[in-house]
Amino acid sequence: MPKVPSFSPVIKNLTFIYEENLNRETEFGGSDFSGYPTLRQRNDSYDIRESMSIHCGFVKGPKPGLGTGYDMNEIDRLAMENCHGVVVSSAIFGNFDEIQQPKNISEYSKKNVCFFMFVDEETEAYLRKTSAIDSDRRSGIWRVVVVRNLPYTDGRRNGKIPKLLIHRMFPNARFSLWIDGKLELVVDPYQILERFLWRKNATFAISRHYKRFDTFTEAEANKAAGKYDNASIDFQIEFYKNEGLTPYSEAKLPITSGRIRVPDA
Question: Which residues make beta-bridge pairs with 87?
């Protein structure tokens, strides 16, 4: 692991905000958990500066997972705070997938990498019924964390929270690796980080969809699969259109994909 992280501007003053008494869902999308930032505010948040204020779903509680509407017990929160170095995380909500055990994990990674699987109470009940977790809430290499008081009725949206806000849940981890619940990790996490981050001195890497590169095509695929309510998807697409999003084409190169997951969490 690199002794010095990849170059990135340093934030010295960071404030997480939640604007009270707003009814902006019909105008901007979003939710009470994530807030209702405009697209301009979202884009501005990517411009790292010394002092910043950004929306965050964990802003209501004293710390992520405590009184935030995405609550975890104290033992799990402490374990997340004490995770240094690398964290591998995944989530299963609504008992939608089976836990996949990582393969080819080195003994060093077993001792030094944090493996966390986030589930809801429905999934926990199934795991206990099938003896997929033990009395210490472990499933193989995974530490299973039960999340309560979920902000969304849709399990897919609840699963987006550890995917997008893992840096808030693990404030002392240097690197994180997200694995979708339906996927199986078959390579040691240090090998993935070395190939996609450390070789290129990069701070972030994301896989490109094997088939779809256009947001509008993605929206129709989501509707066809019944992943979300169609009206919610249509609303989000209209929001993107109003903000100036156009269909993807090679004219947008070197951007290799215009795909945005919908609807917004």
Answer: 114, 176
